[in-house]
Amino acid sequence: MTGSEPARYTPDVDAGLDEQIGMWRSFMAARPAIAPADLDELESHLRDQVDALAASGLAPDEAFLVAVRRLGKIDDLSREFAREHSDRLWKQLVMGEESTPRRESRGLVTALGLAIAAALGLKLPALFGASLVDDPDFYLRNIMVLVLPFLAAFFLIRRRARIATVAVVATAFVAASVVLNAYPFAATGTTEALAVVHAGVALWIVSGLAYVNGDWRSGQARMDFIRFTGEWVVYYVLIALGGAVLAGLTLGVFGAIGMDASTFVSDWMLPCGATGAVVIAAWLVEAKQSVIENIAPVLTRLFTPLFTLMLLALIASAVVQHDFVDSQRDLLIIFDLVLIVALGLLLYSMSARSPERPAGWFDTLQLVMVVAALIVDLFVVVAMLGRIDAYGASANKLASLGLNLILLVNLAGAAWLQLRFLRGVTHYPALERWQTSYVPIYLAWAAVVVVVLPPVFAFA
Predict the structure, then answer these.
(1) Of 183-187, 272-276, 319-323, 402-406, which range is least confident?
(2) Residue 266 pLDDT class (50, 70, 90 cuts)
(3) Contact, 103 vs 32, CB < 8 A?
(4) CB count, 10 Å around CB of 422?
(5) Nearest Cα to 49, choosing from 24, 31, 32, 29?
(6) Are 24 and 81 in contact (CB under 8 A)?
(7) Crossing angle, helix 219-256 and helix 11-29, to 10 degrees?
(8) What is the per-residue pLDDT for 70?
């Protein structure tokens, strides 16, 4: 290397730099004031600054932080990123804390408009004879296609998404709609229900693509969406509880004056409210980020011990119950739900944790939970293989087996990395990268269940 050539990083350092720049880019892309072309120019300038600082002898992390601070002289948002990055590595992805009142006011208007559009869109098929009462199968089959596009549209508008991102997201929704409505599902079959559930999973992840404005290669961007998902669930449940109280009061008040409001509540208030709340909950996550961040650690520390105890009880029951392999299908489905919730708790707690914090007692508890979930998953896999051997393969069994095998590898890797982290062998970001790398795998498996399994089993 000649003296005139700038110093370059080793492959490992370059990979770390690319991830940090990816985090910065995701943060900046969420700002409506920054166009994609401007962001490309800012990134190029940032990389030039990092190269120049590295050539002067700074360490990669120091070069990145100093470069972002210098870029802050050009753009106030970069200065905000630099300040947050110095305190906590991934917190710069938070949208709500830096939002101006005017921007959040515009965001609320957008959210309310899309929520109303979603509610009206749910009732639109009734104009063609497909009402909730007369044709519930149509709504069960298309509920995700009818609702989630408005959530994705909220993200696309808020992020001022690139044309390519809009095209990919729209194509995914159109493809799901075509498959769900073109496939000749049997009236009493199981493939339709499988396709609907897994289409919902796939379309939620596609909405995540809109959330990160197409920056799906960034592990930090994926973790940001995972955190959003957990917080969205919290807000949606709170809205649902409030909606249930409102519905009860409506029935009581109108009943007291001799009027029956049950039709209005069942046909309009509940379905339209539940639909619109999907978008409103998303806006609340972004506008009230600091509030939910105070709740998230409490929720994870409350439910992780309780869930760990339940998993240990399941293991003890499985050991005592010698015919676990012959367990009923409904029981295995419940076990799958338990495993999914356990994984969700793990992901939510990871997204709410500072990567710089050293290992503590809660990390040890999480390892116990993950190992317990891994053992339960092993029992379920053995039970599923036994049922397939005894009763033959079916769409339900293969879908469940595939999910449990993916969970098995996911949990095994998580347990191993968690153990290495507790022993001080690896750093916490390695655990995050392992989990975020599985998001495309879940998307791919959901797509297989939706597209491949129904025709394989004759849509039965």
Answers:
(1) 319-323
(2) confident
(3) yes
(4) 15
(5) 24
(6) yes
(7) 30
(8) 66
Instruction: Give how far the C-alpha of residue 247 lies from the chain's centroid of Cα atoms, to the nearest Å.
Output: 29
DSSP at 127: G
Best CA proximity match to 53, nearest among 74, 42, 68: 68
Residue with tokens 């909950």: 281
Amino acid 420 reads R
Helices (DSSP H) in 124-269: which residue ranges?
Answer: 136-159, 163-182, 191-211, 219-256, 262-264
Q: 392 φ, ψ to 5°?
A: 90, 165
What contacts 231, CB < 8 A, 6 or more positions away?
A: 285, 289, 292, 296
- Look at the alpha carbons of 80, 163, 437, 451 in this order and tell me if their dihedral is positive or negative: positive
The answer to whether the CB of 191 falls within 8 A of the CB of 395 is yes
**Is 17:60 a contact under the CB 8 Å cutoff?**
yes
17 or 168: which leads in pLDDT: 168
Reported confidence tier of residue 3, pLDDT bands at 50, 70, 90: very low
User: Is the model more confident about 226 or about 40?
Assistant: 226
Phi/psi for 364 (5° steps) reads -65, -40
In eight-state DSSP terms, residue 265 is I
pTM: 0.73
Tokens of 448: 């297989």
> Both tokens of residue 293?
């961040």
Q: What is the largest CA-CA distance in the chain?
A: 91
The CB density around residue 376, as the number of other CB atoms within 10 Å, is 24
CB 300 within 8 A of CB 345: yes
Question: Which residue, among 113, 103, 106, 6, has the nearest Cα to 51 in the 3D structure?
Answer: 6
Instruction: Give 347-372 as a DSSP string.
Output: HHHHHTS-TTSPP-HHHHHHHHHHHH
Could you count the other beta carbons within 10 Å of the beta carbon of residue 12?
Answer: 9
Q: Which two tokens stand for residue 447?
A: 């797509």
Contact call for residues 369 and 338 (beta carbons, < 8 A)? no
